[in-house]
Amino acid sequence: MIATRPDVVPYIACWSSEHRPSGVVMATGGGIAYVDEGPYERDDMGVLWKRIGISPGKGRPEFGNVHFLRQRRAMRKLLCQICGGPSDRTDDGTLWLVGEDADYPELHKPGYVTTHPPLCVPCAVTSVGACPHLRKRYVALRVRTFVVAGVHGALYRPGGLVPVAYDAGGVAFESWRIRWVLAAQLVMELQEFTVVDLDAEHAAHLKRTEARAKIFGGANCPHPS
């Protein structure tokens, strides 16, 4: 998650009021399950997810903690991780920012994976100015093709009546370990993308916004700056 200044709380940030007991995890014939598992605690791939409350805006924002369900929704619906609105999409692709891996050689090859949802242009500009990590180094990408490839979460060791979590990491949907992970975030694989200049993207966004305003009026123009 991209951290921003205190007055800008990212959509995917967790609030102190949203913590819930995780529940007791047990082993089944082919993976893990909650002892009191409800009908909505697995996704459409059958993956078990960590429990969390939903009360954004109540309590204190926790910039270092990601809200599991909002991160998952942002990835699935391509929402901006900061404002929760639509991410920026053009013919060149969807906008993503990479910070901590900006110097990683694999970033420039197909198949780079991330747990960070995309962004809209104004929030991307705000983020690189407000986040200490991004101020040091970042890369902006226009991603043409991508796929939700797996989850990141707590890994449980198979076997035994009471499974034990031994590590945390990413698991691809096709892996046998997918039934032994308690998911916390979706993982997106970026397959085809181009490194772009964020300043140029911002200038192009302003031009598109201005052109839209001439037709529809300023009230219908999201993110005028």
Could you outline the blueprint of secondary structure elements for this entry?
Blueprint: E1 13-15, E2 25-27, E3 32-34, E4 61-66, H1 68-77, E5 89-90, E6 93-98, E7 112-114, H2 121-130, H3 132-136, E8 139-156, E9 165-172, E10 181-196, H4 198-216
Antiparallel strand pairs: 1-4, 2-3, 5-6, 6-8, 7-10, 8-9, 8-10
Helix pairs in contact: 2-4
Relevant terms:
225 residues, 4 helices, two-stranded antiparallel sheet, alpha+beta
Report on this structure:
It is a single chain. By secondary structure, the chain is an alpha+beta fold. 20% of the residues lie in helices and 30% in strands. The chain contains 4 helices and 10 strands, in the order ββββαβββααβββα. It has helices at residues 68-77, 121-130, 132-136, 198-216, and strands at 13-15, 25-27, 32-34, 61-66, 89-90, 93-98, 112-114, 139-156, 165-172, 181-196. The strands form 3 sheets. Strands 5, 6, 7, 8, 9 and 10 form a 6-stranded antiparallel β-sheet that branches. Helix 2 crosses helix 4 (198-216). It is globular, with a radius of gyration of 19 Å. The mean pLDDT is 88.
